[in-house]
Amino acid sequence: AISPDFYGWVFPHGDSASVGMGSELSSVNLKQATADLRAASGLTDCETLRKEGAPIPLKPMDRWDNGKDVVLAGDAAGVVAPSSGE
After folding, report:
1. Which of 32, 42, 78, 85 fits a disulfide with 60 by CB distance 3.0 to 4.6 angstroms?
2. Which residue from 38, 39, 46 is spatially nearest to 16, judged by alpha carbons?
3. Backbone angle region of 67, left / alpha / beta, with phi > 0 → left and psi within -120 to 50 → alpha
4. How far apart are the first and last CA of the chain?
5. 70: burial class by Cβ within 10 Å (0-12, 13-18, 19+)?
6. Which residues pair with 2 in a beta bridge?
7. Interatomic CA distance for residues 10 and 5, integer angstroms
8. Is 62 helix (H, G, I), strand (E, B) or coil?
9. Per-residue pLDDT reduced to its tens digit, 31-51
C-alpha cells in the first residue's frame, strides 16, 4: 500500500504530473512512499520539477469568506472528506 491510512495520487498536467501521497501516521516515510509511487507509475526517470508539501486540513474553518469578496473552497476552507482527501 502506498499509504496505510490515506491515499496516493498521480494527476497528469499535460507534459508533467503531480505525484504525491498523504498520511497522518508519523511512521510513514513520505519521501520513500512518494518514490515508490513514482516507480509504480513508471515515472522513476522523469525530472522532478518541484518538491513541496502541506497539511491537508480535515476540519472546516469557522468562516469560509471575509464578508466582502473572498470565498474559500475545498482544502483551503478545510472542507475535505477525511476518507479520500477530496
Report:
1. 78
2. 46
3. left
4. 19
5. exposed
6. none
7. 17
8. coil
9. 899 999 999 999 999 999 999
C-alpha cell at 45: 526517470
Instruction: Dump pLDDT digits (tens) for 51-60.
Output: 988 777 767 7
The dihedral region occupied by 38, where left means phi > 0, alpha psi between -120 and 50, and beta the remainder, is: alpha
Q: Which helix (H) or strand (E) holds 33?
A: helix 30-40
CA distance 52 to 76: 16
> Rounded to 5 degrees, what are φ and ψ at 75?
-70, -25
- Tell me, yes or no, if the pTM score tops 0.70: no
Pull the grid cell for residue 72: 474559500
Contacts for 24 with CB less than 8 Å, ≥ 6 apart? 5, 6
Q: Are 8 and 30 in contact (CB under 8 A)?
A: no
